[in-house]
């Protein structure tokens, strides 16, 4: 397994440098794994093939991978993977997961929003619970790891504990939740499952309808789930009954593969703003209006788009000498800022007409909320200047805003030492520091952060590809993620 070199961890990779010493200390404090085979470290083993297979508990190894593949077969479509909120395949997947939860020794139930729960009370059932989860729904033509890996790795870890007779000995209740909706494919509303558990899903969400007019409420009732506004409130957890929420998820980006490390700790989930920029000019004949007499919104839009790219690549060049960014950390901004123009429309959109109007969207994400505001402010000023110079008018509308979610420092430290310990145990080598990444994509942890402190681990995926059947995670990285959850839970023994 290749090991990350510090210099290659640039883009997106933030460092908890002050944590590294603590991490090393923590990893010594972890109790040894139940299987004796794990105790043999210090031996440098070269290839995975040359290692004895019993180095890994059976459950973490073949079973976790086999279950991911089995779950990946549970689809509403022929020939590709699709599981939307409470579709027949989702119900079937939920039942399968429920069965696996029971095999791991957990007590199970399905709540009114279709989330599947499996719980062990441990030594003190009134202690605050550790929740571990991810989503069981998928996008259309999905990969088999997005969401499922977080559920399967948690169940694998708990099953190992159960088979070693330690499951009942956990210090606090541990509950795995397979959320019914994260992708929001069917109702265009993400986090139906986790938002309900976190208590932030408004009752109005039950009346959202899909393309054919079927509502969320209809779908739940069709699955014999007696959803009412009153029962929706029962899905919500009391903050004081919960200790924290942990989620393992594939990275869905290329950074981990680039660093050569299988796991990363997530520093936080980026905040996001969506803008709509409309540039209006003077519509005209492409053959008759001289260049000097045009008010063409297209070059203005083009200049604005290129400006946005420069601004987001090097925000420090644009913001550092301005008054409005004194209080923001340019480092955290420039290491996490991503901006995308994904949609552009023109009117009347004909090859022989100078357009009258050009509209484009901006998707802007960073973990630094104040930095996000500074970038929007700077872009807006400069965009208006461009429009003035070109004698066109522009308006910039804010369509969507979500603040960043920072992961809890203590949970992140524990997850980091668990990841470090898992990788070290699997490779038999002392490893470099576990990378710390920002998540540019939203996750259930975002909704759960309204309920409790959250922590996340990212798992390396091939080429950073996700939301595609090409999505792939190495078998050994599946084992590593299960082992990391196990190491993490062992700190709760
Ligand atoms: C169980 O947890 C509760 C809530 O945290 C705590 O008050 C109580 O002391 C715990 N009981 C034991 C035996 O540790
Ligand atoms: Zn996901």
Automatic annotation (TrEMBL):
Q: Where is the Peptidase M20 dimerisation domain?
A: 271-384
Is the keyword Hydrolase in the record? yes
Q: What is the lineage of its organism?
A: Eukaryota, Viridiplantae, Streptophyta, Embryophyta, Tracheophyta
Protein name (record): Allantoate deiminase 1 isoform X2
Q: Which NCBIfam families does the record match to this protein?
A: hydantase
Pfam families tied to this protein: M20_dimer, Peptidase_M20
Query: What are the alphabetically sorted keywords of the record?
Result: Hydrolase, Manganese, Metal-binding, Purine metabolism
GO MF assignments: allantoate deiminase activity; metal ion binding
Q: Which cofactor does it need?
A: Mn(2+)
Keyword field contains Nucleotide-binding: no
Please, one GO biological process term?
purine nucleobase metabolic process
Q: How does it assemble?
A: Homodimer.
GO annotation, cellular component aspect: endoplasmic reticulum
Gene3D superfamilies, alphabetically?
3.30.70.360, Zn peptidases (3.40.630.10)
């Amino acid at each position: 397994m290749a090991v990350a070199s510090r210099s290659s961890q640039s883009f997106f990779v933030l460092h908890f440098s002050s944590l590294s010493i603590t991490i090393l200390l923590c990893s010594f404090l972890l109790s040894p794994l139940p299987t004796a085979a794990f105790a043999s470290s210090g031996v440098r083993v070269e290839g995975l093939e040359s290692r004895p297979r019993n180095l890994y508990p059976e459950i973490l190894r073949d079973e976790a991978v086999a279950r991911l593949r089995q779950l990946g077969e549970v689809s509403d479509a022929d020939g590709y993977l699709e599981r939307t909120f409470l579709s027949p395949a989702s119900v079937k997947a939920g039942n399968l997961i429920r069965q696996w939860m029971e095999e791991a020794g957990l007590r199970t139930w399905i709540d009114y929003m279709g989330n599947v729960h499996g719980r062990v009370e441990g030594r003190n059932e009134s202690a605050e619970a550790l929740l571990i989860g991810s989503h069981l729904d998928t996008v259309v033509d999905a990969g088999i790891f997005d969401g499922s890996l977080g559920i399967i790795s948690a169940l694998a870890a708990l099953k190992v504990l159960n088979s070693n007779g330690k499951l009942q000995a956990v210090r606090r209740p541990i509950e795995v939740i397979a959320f019914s909706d994260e992708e929001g494919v069917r109702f265009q509303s993400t986090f139906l499952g986790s938002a309900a558990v976190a208590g932030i899903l408004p009752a109005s969400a039950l009346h959202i309808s899909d393309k054919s007019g079927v509502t969320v409420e209809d779908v739940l009732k069709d699955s014999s789930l007696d959803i009412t506004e009153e029962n929706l409130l029962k899905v919500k957890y009391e903050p004081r009954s919960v200790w924290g929420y942990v989620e393992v998820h594939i990275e869905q980006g290329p950074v981990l593969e680039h660093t050569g490390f299988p796991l990363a700790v997530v520093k936080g989930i980026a905040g996001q703003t969506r803008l709509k920029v409309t540039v209006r000019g003077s519509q005209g004949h492409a053959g008759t209006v001289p260049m000097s007499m045009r008010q063409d919104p297209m070059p203005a839009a083009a200049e604005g788009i290129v400006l946005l790219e420069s601004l987001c690549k090097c925000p420090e060049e644009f913001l550092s000498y301005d008054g409005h960014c004194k209080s923001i950390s340019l480092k955290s901004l420039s290491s996490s800022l991503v901006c995308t123009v994904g949609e552009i429309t023109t009117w009347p959109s004909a090859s022989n007409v100078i357009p009258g109007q050009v509209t484009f969207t901006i998707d802007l994400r960073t973990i630094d909320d104040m930095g996000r505001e500074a970038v929007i402010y700077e872009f807006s000023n400069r965009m208006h200047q461009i429009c003035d110079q070109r004698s066109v008018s522009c308006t910039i509308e804010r369509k969507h805003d979500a603040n960043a979610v920072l992961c809890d420092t203590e949970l992140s430290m524990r997850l980091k030492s668990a990841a470090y310990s898992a990788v070290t145990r699997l490779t038999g080598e002392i490893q470099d520091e576990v990378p710390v990444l920002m998540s540019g994509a939203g996750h259930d942890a975002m909704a759960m952060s309204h309920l409790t402190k959250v922590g996340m681990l990212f798992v390396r995926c091939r080429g950073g590809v996700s939301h595609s059947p090409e999505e792939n995670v190495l078998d050994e990285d599946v084992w590593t993620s299960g082992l990391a959850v196990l190491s993490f839970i062992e700190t709760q023994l």
